[in-house]
């Protein structure tokens, strides 16, 4: 089968690989019909995530058709159209039993601090991902769900991570009616979070980025007020000015480890790998919100330390909430919202690229070329 | 104003927002949201029909965090450790917990070694690495590279020139090593 393969920082190619076998009685093998590239994949692509091995296939956003099931699988059969959450999880450990699917303790021998994620380095379990023609899906009775018959693949694939994560991010903000919400980052996660904030009753939604084309999307797709931080001397002061010097009630970090806006932070993290991530957006969130505010962190950071302004967070009495998104927990409600037309996930898709050209897709998405917001990957067999 | 008790007034009322934004307020009740409360016990175990999952066979000694009691019942098998990078990785897993910076720094170092090892190895294979096609840099010409980079006020422009340096580094290092080795051989032949 054809699969995307990592060759080193900024380098990937398509290789002929063996079709993955069933390795556990509750495994399924899924033939991928749509995959996507996530902002998280860029941290791998740039060589920031420890234990990213040459030869690995990335991809944690994918949907497809069940091709084969292991002997203990009860809920799926070959031919079923399924969507697969980006979390690999068992359903039965201490954490899964309590709904923390992203924190499963039975699927990742490499680390206890993070659960299992498809195609996301050995630090997240060493599973090959879905930017390929076929993928191994462990715990087929737990994670995957049949795609509702009214939903198309383009929407379904965005529910496997980006939309679920944006919606989850808004929830962790503990938004109450009339709250002023500021979202850092106008990538897919930030745009979905901004849109979701309204569903939870926000009174004002502000989106910050430095890419004008993405801010335009924030205005049209997420009805948000937007500011390009590169146009301000100090975005923290600007955010104070536009909120009567109080600051926002809730901030959402939808940027993560490669944040721009401070050269030293960006280069020490994203280029030199001397800290887990560049916490520029997180620090802006900490400094710009009002005292007693809540910050929801969806942006991903590496397992090493990062230079976060903890003193200010303490002195301001902030609540910091964060996690990898437990995707399937969001689905029943999100299915309703998509069906009612409140959320249209595929509105953010800007590129559909065949698997064989995935190296170009990564380059375009990574360098933010050609108005790219969300690239989908289409395998030949799809 | 934070200097007095009242919260600043919003420009739009809830009714105006509900009229303008499709779906405004459908998840208004903070208690009625899918991730609330954070911990919610599901007696059905989310479809799992086991108390503890069956164990996947371990086909080679699987490296694991020393913070785990045992090898997890299910695990990925993407890229077994190999070569010098594999030795560094195994050492790091065996020796340091996730709480130690040494653990992560060694794993990152192993990643760099892996890239160089694999690139050199590929030169001897039927499919050598091609730094041009693998970086997808061709899309600069087909997808408005320059125009996109020059549009508006992009904060990342300052470090764009660093990317090619990062890509080229292993090739320059490998080239230098090959050059030194060859010139030594040539010199030895002459004497
Ligand atoms: N917690 C989770 O479960 C989860 C799931 C998916 C993605 N993520 C993470 O969320 C983040 C965003 O993902 P994405 O797919 O939207 O990525 P993306 O790269 O498309 O978006 C990031 C955006 O942040 C902008 N940005 C950079 N520096 C900024 C700053 N200082 N202030 C404001 N904006 C800034 C960039 O211009 C870009 O538009 C990533 O870190 C990703 O790893 C987390
Ligand atoms: Zn993701
Ligand atoms: Zn679990």
Automatic annotation (TrEMBL), chain A:
It holds the Pfam family ADH_zinc_N. Keywords: Metal-binding, Oxidoreductase, Zinc. Its cofactor is Zn(2+). InterPro entries: ADH-like_C (IPR013149), ADH-like_N (IPR013154), ADH_Zn_CS (IPR002328), GroES-like_sf (IPR011032), NAD(P)-bd_dom_sf (IPR036291). Residues 25-144 form the Alcohol dehydrogenase-like N-terminal domain. Residues 188-259 form the Alcohol dehydrogenase-like C-terminal domain. PANTHER family: DEHYDROGENASE, ZINC-CONTAINING, PUTATIVE (AFU_ORTHOLOGUE AFUA_2G02810)-RELATED, ZINC-TYPE ALCOHOL DEHYDROGENASE-LIKE. Belongs to the zinc-containing alcohol dehydrogenase family. This is Glutathione-dependent formaldehyde dehydrogenase.
UniProtKB/TrEMBL annotation, chain B:
It comes from the Bacteria. The chain crosses the membrane at residues 164-182. The lineage of its organism: Bacteria, Bacillati, Actinomycetota, Actinomycetes, Micromonosporales. It comes from Micromonospora tarensis. Keywords: Membrane, Transmembrane, Transmembrane helix. This is Uncharacterized protein.
């Amino acid at each position: 089968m054809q699969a995307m393969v990592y060759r080193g920082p900024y380098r990937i190619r398509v290789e002929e690989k063996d079709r993955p076998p069933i390795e556990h009685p509750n495994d399924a093998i899924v033939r991928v019909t749509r995959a996507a590239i996530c902002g998280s994949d860029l941290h791998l692509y740039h060589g920031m995530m420890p234990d990213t091995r040459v030869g690995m296939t990335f991809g944690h956003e994918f949907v497809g058709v069940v091709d084969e099931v292991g002997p203990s699988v009860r809920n799926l059969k070959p031919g079923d159209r399924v969507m697969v959450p980006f979390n690999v999880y068992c359903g039965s450990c201490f954490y899964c039993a309590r709904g923390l699917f992203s924190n499963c303790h039975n699927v990742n021998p490499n680390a206890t601090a993070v659960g299992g994620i498809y195609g996301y380095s050995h630090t997240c379990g060493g599973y090959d991902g879905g930017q390929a023609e076929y993928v191994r899906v462990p715990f087929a009775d737990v994670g995957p769900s049949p795609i509702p018959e009214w939903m198309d693949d383009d929407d379904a694939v965005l529910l496997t991570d980006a939309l679920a994560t944006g919606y989850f991010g808004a929830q962790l903000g503990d938004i109450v009616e009339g709250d002023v919400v500021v979202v850092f980052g106008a990538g897919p996660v930030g745009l979905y979070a901004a849109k979701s904030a309204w569903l939870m009753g926000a009174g004002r939604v502000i989106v910050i980025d430095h890419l004008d084309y993405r801010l335009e999307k924030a205005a049209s797709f997420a009805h948000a007020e937007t500011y390009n931080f590169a146009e301000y001397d100090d975005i923290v002061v600007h955010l104070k000015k536009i909120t009567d010097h109080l600051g926002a009630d809730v901030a959402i970090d939808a940027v993560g480890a490669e944040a721009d806006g401070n050269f030293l932070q960006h280069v020490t993290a994203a280029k030199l790998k001397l800290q887990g991530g560049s916490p520029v957006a997180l620090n802006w969130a900490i400094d710009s919100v009002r005292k007693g505010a809540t910050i929801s962190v969806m942006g991903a950071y590496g397992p090493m330390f990062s230079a976060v302004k903890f003193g200010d967070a303490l002195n301001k009495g902030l609540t910091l909430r964060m996690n990898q998104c437990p995707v399937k927990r969001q689905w029943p409600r999100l299915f309703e919202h998509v069906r009612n037309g409140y959320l249209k996930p595929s509105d953010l898709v800007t590129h559909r690229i065949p698997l064989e050209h995935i190296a170009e897709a990564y380059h375009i998405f990574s360098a933010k070329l050609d108005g790219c917001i969300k690239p989908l990957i289409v395998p030949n067999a799809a | 104003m934070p200097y007095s008790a009242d919260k600043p007034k919003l420009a739009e009322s809830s009714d105006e927002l509900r009229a303008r934004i499709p779906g405004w307020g459908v998840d208004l009740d903070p208690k009625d949201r899918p991730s609330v409360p954070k911990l919610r016990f599901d007696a059905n175990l989310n479809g799992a029909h086991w108390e503890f999952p069956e164990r996947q066979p371990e086909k080679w000694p699987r490296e694991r965090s020393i913070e785990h009691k045992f090898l997890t019942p299910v695990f990925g098998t993407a890229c077994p450790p190999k070569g010098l990078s594999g030795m560094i990785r195994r050492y790091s897993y065996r020796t340091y917990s996730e709480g130690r910076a040494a653990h992560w720094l060694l794993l990152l170092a192993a990643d760099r070694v892996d890239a160089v090892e694999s690139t050199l190895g590929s030169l001897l294979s039927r499919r050598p690495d091609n730094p041009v096609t693998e970086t997808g840099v061709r899309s600069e010409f087909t997808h408005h590279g320059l125009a996109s980079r020059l549009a508006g006020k992009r904060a990342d422009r300052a470090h764009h020139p660093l990317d090619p340096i990062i890509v080229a580094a292993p090739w320059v290092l490998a080239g230098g090593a090959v050059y030194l080795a060859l010139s030594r051989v040539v010199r030895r032949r002459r004497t």
